[in-house]
Amino acid sequence: ESAAHTDERRRLAGLLSHGLDSLADAVPRQVAGVPLFWLAQYLERRIHVIAWLLDHWDGPPPPHDAVVDGAQAHETLASLERMFADVKGDTDLRARPGWANGPLATGGSQQPFATTIDWPDEFETTLPVRGGLGFFLTEVLSNAMRHGAAGSMPDVTIRCDRVKRELAFRVENERRDERVRDGSKYGGLALLTGMARLFGWREVSAGPDGVRFVLTWRAPLTRRDHPGKPD
After folding, report:
1. CA separation, residue 219 to residues 76, 82, 107, 161, 181 (Å)
2. How many helices and strands in the chain, by DSSP H and E?
3. Are strands 114-118 and 34-35 parallel, antiparallel or unpaired?
C-alpha cells in the first residue's frame, strides 16, 4: 500500500471516528427522564458503516444487497428530526458533537430541518450496506448543524425523475461564516464523496452558493415488481 493511500485511509478513519467518544460518553444520559436509546442505535449503525466503508474503500464498489424505498426515507428523516429535537433540549449534549449552531442554537419549537420528498411507492433504490442512506443523511445534516448560521434551517429535498429513473437529492443551509469557500473544509466532504462513489451515486456536488452551502447527488431507481408490497 502506497504512503499516499495509507495517509488517505488514516484521514478517512479520523473523519469517521470524529466525535464518537463524546457521543459514547453521552449514551447513559437522559433527556426529560427518557433514556437516549436512539443515540446507542445511531452509534451502532455508524460503527457498522465505518467498518464496512474501511473494508471496501480500496477496489471496485461492492455489490448492492440492501433495498430502500420512499417509506424508509420518510422514517429515516423522521428519526433524525426526533434525534435533533432531543439534542436541542440539552445544551451539554448538543455541544459534545459540535451541533451548537443552526436551528439547534435557538430556543422555541422550530423544527431542526425542512423536508420535501417526492418518492413514489413503485420505485426503490439499492445500497451495498444497510443503513447507508441514513448514515449519509446523518453526516450531511450534522455538518449543516455544525456549520450553519444560528437560527437557519437546513432544507432536505428528494425528488424522483421518472424519465431518467433517478432520485435527485439536495441538502442546503445558510452558512455561519461566508468566508468558507472551499467545500473540502465543510466537515467531512472527503468522507461523503467517498461513500457516494461506493454507493454508485452520480453527479455529487458540494460547495457554497451565495450565503448557502449546497450538496447534491443522484441515485438510480428501479421499479418494484409488486408496487406497495413490503420487502
Report:
1. 17, 26, 36, 10, 26
2. 7, 10
3. unpaired
Q: Which of 152, 72, 66, 51 lies closest to 119 in space, CA to CA?
A: 72
* CA atoms of 124 and 121, how far apart (whole Å): 8
CB 88 within 8 A of CB 102: no
DSSP for 41-90 reads: HHHHHHHHHHHHHHHTSSSSPPPP-EEEEHHHHHHHHHHHHHHHHHHHT-
SS3 134: helix
Phi, psi angles (nearest 5°) of residue 124: -145, 165
Count of beta carbons in the 10 Å neighbourhood of residue 201:
21
Tell me if 128 sits within 8 A of 173, measured CB to CB: no
Residue given cell 428528494 in the structure block: 158
Predicted TM-score (pTM) of this structure: 0.83
Give yes or no for residue 229 having a pLDDT over 80. Answer: no
Q: Are 180 and 186 spatial neighbours (Cβ–Cβ below 8 Å)?
A: yes
CB atoms within 10 A of CB 171: 22
In a 13 Å sphere around the CA of 93, the CA atoms on its Cβ side amount to 20
Task: Please determine, for residue 186, whether its predicted confidence score (pLDDT) is greater than 50.
Answer: no
Instruction: Report the C-alpha gap between 113 and 148 in whole angstroms.
Output: 11
Q: Which candidate, 124, 121, 126, 118, places its Cα nearest to that of 159?
A: 118
- Over residues 88-110, the pLDDT tens digits come to 878 888 887 778 888 888 766 67
